[in-house]
Amino acid sequence: MTEKEREPAGLLLAAGGGRRLGGRPKALLEHRGRPLVEYAVGVLRAAGCARVHVVLGARADEVRRRAELGGCVVVENPAWEEGMGSSLRAGLDSLAGTGARAALVSLVDQPGIGVEAVRRVLAAYEDDGSLASAAYDGVRGHPVLLGSAHWAGIAESASGDRGARAYLRAHREAIRLVECGDVARPYDIDTEADLIHLE
């Protein structure tokens, strides 16, 4: 296995149905002329993720048609309505056996987190025991870097919309916080009012 294959993989969670956006899947929202999911993949690639897995759910067929996701491993999460936890489990499961020793997890609805923040968190990778997270004025946020030694424990505790939160809280002493407040804005696109952040 090459060194490239052992490097952290990008894992983009893009399955949500946009319930508070009138049922418009966030992956399909337009940002800079392209679907948001395509923009987010571009950020991961530009930051140095050679391998990118994308978890889709709501209107997955339409997302595949409209977004350029060539070179990505597209994972469909049939249980996406259960929340982010099921998408995180599906994504980590898709990485098992690939040789990747860490996953850099990012969320499709945070376009204010760009290449520099992702690059900083990636740089915190040391080995499969690594745990790192972007921080904004000292407060933990996304993206997060999850070494493969933690994947089974994270998958076990990921439920509802909590994702890795419970696991990370239990292992907070092991997390390396990487300040990104000077280069990124961690807002979410959750409601109609948040659409002002899209360009």
Topology summary:
Layout: H1 3-6, E1 9-14, E2 30-31, E3 34-35, H2 36-47, E4 52-56, H3 60-66, E5 73-76, H4 84-95, E6 102-107, H5 115-122, E7 131-136, E8 139-147, H6 151-157, H7 165-170, E9 176-179
Helix pairs in contact: 2-5, 4-6
How do you describe this structure in short?
28% of the residues lie in helices and 22% in strands. The protein is α/β, with parallel strands linked by helices and 199 residues long.
Which tags fit this structure?
199 residues; alpha/beta; 7-stranded mixed β-sheet; two-stranded antiparallel sheet; 9 strands; 28% helix; 22% strand
Question: Would you write up a description of this structure?
Answer:
- The protein has 199 residues and is an alpha/beta fold.
- Helices cover 28% and strands 22% of the residues.
- It is built from 7 helices and 9 strands, in the order αβββαβαβαβαββααβ.
- Strands 5-4-1-6-8-7-9 form a 7-stranded mixed beta sheet, with helices on both faces. Strands 2-3 form a two-stranded antiparallel sheet.
- Strand 4, helix 3 (60-66) and strand 5 form a beta-alpha-beta unit.
- Helix 4 (84-95) runs antiparallel to helix 6.
- The chain is globular, with a radius of gyration of 15 Å.
- The model has no long low-confidence stretch (mean pLDDT 93).
Rg of Cα set:
15 Å
Q: Provide the helix percentage.
A: 25-40%
Strand order of the largest sheet: 5-4-1-6-8-7-9
Question: Could you list the spans in which at least 5 consecutive residues all have pLDDT below 50?
Answer: none
Strand content: 15-25%
User: What is the distance, rounded to the nearest whole angstrom, between the alpha carbons of the first and last residues?
Assistant: 40 Å
Shape: globular
Order of H and E elements = HEEEHEHEHEHEEHHE
The biggest sheet amounts to: 7 strands, mixed
Calculate the mean pLDDT score and round it: 93
Structural class: alpha/beta
Number of strands: 9
Provide a count of the helices: 7
